[in-house]
Amino acid sequence: MFFGGTKDSTVPVNEVVVFDLATKTTSYLPSMGKSRKDVKIAEIDGYIYVIGGVASEFSTFDKEGLDLQVYDVVERYEPKSNRWTTMAPMLTKRRNHAVNTWEGKIYVAGGINQDSQILNSLEIYDPKLNKWTMGQPMQCRRFSFPIVFYDGALFAFGYEVPGERLDLITQKWSNLSNTQDWRTAVVYDDKIIMGGVVDSTYEFNPKTNQLKQLNFKKIIRSSESFLVPKALVSIFPPKESTKSITDYPITIVALGPSLPLTNICTIEFYHPLEDSWAILSKIELNVTKEYSAIYSDKKIFIFGGINRTTSTTGKIAYSHCDEVISFDLLTKEISKLTPMGQKKENVGVGKIGEYIYISGGKGINGTIYDTVERYDPKEDAWTFMAPMLTKRYNHAVNVWEGKMYVAGGNDYGYYNLLSLEIYDPNLNQWTLGTSMKSKRTKFSILFMDGSLFAMGGNYWRGDDYHKNHGEKLDLKTQTWTDIENPIRDSLWRSAVPFDDKIIIYGDEHQNYEYNPETNELKEKNPNKVNRFSAILLLAPMI
């Protein structure tokens, strides 16, 4: 991701550009609030912080030349909502500074202030408090340099002065015996890889204080950045399937919005027996997010959603969709079908017999629906059925013994629901079931061994938000019991049963196998596509 910079080396911009390392495609995100260059970037808990920088204007000059505006501004980007938020400003305006993160906090060091003075100050940002505090200043003033954390210490390198390290326990700085003009550095294994001006590259061993020159870079740069992705699964997957989707009688298909948001839906399939992923196809939709899908007769049916457009000024516009398409897993043929009766997002989908049922959803002007539409794939026709007892969207749906179960979701005011209702297609009638213990939205329900499992999502129970990640209903006793999630930070979105296990898909690249008998959760190979609100579908291919 590229933030800001200058156009024609003069005019600062607020553009944000994304380059996909896997597809080698470029896309644009909503622009930052401030046009600036020489910003620094940090990432914590999925949020991206753009810190400081400078705006240069060639329209005004003073006696000394160019008039510069140095910023203390901090803006936070949330990829899931695709929005920017202005956070608490730094204590000092600075550009050409160094930034890194440690234990959930952002450290900012050095740089140049509004008066063109080189700084040695260190300040620390706590995102939970949205507050900056001063840290222990460096011994040397520096700009255009890197800082990295390694083995309980903060290392500051470069700008033609010796490096130094801060012991994070004693809060004391000590000198390092090196003077190279290093501009960027990353930790790799037990070494620090550093890039200097022109084409030089070095490897520094913090334990021995030895510096080793590496092969020269192929491109000469005056300023550069080294990046180490946390996961390169979209480029170098841990294990990729070499088989086709038809090599197993049952497979699991994954789809859903990917980051950054585009109209391209990447469909991949997973073989649990091999623990391997493979991309099946990429299809273009008229929507970017909040669509729903179901598997039926070797096809994936996709319903509704939201299309998002961004103007040249960065203004975002949303429009709901009633479109229905089918994607043939074997022929990869895409077909446009008769649209739904209403334009809406986040509908629930269930299949009983030969019919597909669409329930609820959110439409234009925030309208929440209780409507139910039945789709006949043979006739490509829709029929309105009896409405649900509660208006809802972002709810979970599954089918058991010829009846459709609908649970949770959001109602008016975005309040999460814990209610469960059951639809009997023979009577065209809804009845209330036993409510869940936790209010949930964007989650999954599934049936296994006489129980209904409610897995993950966003939910609320009293004052304990995200206390647990699952619960199950004994269908005989009609009582719910909690399922504790051993991996607390994972956010489950979609789940399907496979043999005697449950395959769970979380946000981004998270993939797990859950054993209901032992309550054990096993992390599996990550998928290839970075998603949020993912959709998993069980796909019998025989």
Question: In brief, what are we looking at here?
Answer:
The chain has 542 residues and is mainly β.
Multimeric organization: single chain
Task: Please compute the radius of gyration using only Cα atoms.
Answer: 27 Å
Shape: elongated
Query: How many domains make up the coordinates?
Result: 2
Mean pLDDT: 84
Strand order of the largest sheet: 6-7-10-11
CATH architecture of the largest domain: 6 Propeller
Q: What composes the largest sheet?
A: 4 strands, antiparallel
Q: Can you tell me the residue ranges where pLDDT is under 50 for at least 5 consecutive residues?
A: 57-66, 230-240, 463-467
Task: List how many beta strands DSSP finds.
Answer: 52
Structural class: mainly beta
CATH topology name of the largest domain: Neuraminidase
- Sheet-strand content, in percent, reads over 45%
> Treating each run of at least 4 consecutive H or I residues as one helix, how many helices?
0
CATH superfamily of the largest domain: Kelch-type beta propeller
Which percent range fits the helix content? under 10%
CATH class of the largest domain: Mainly Beta
| Cα distance spanning the termini | 43 Å
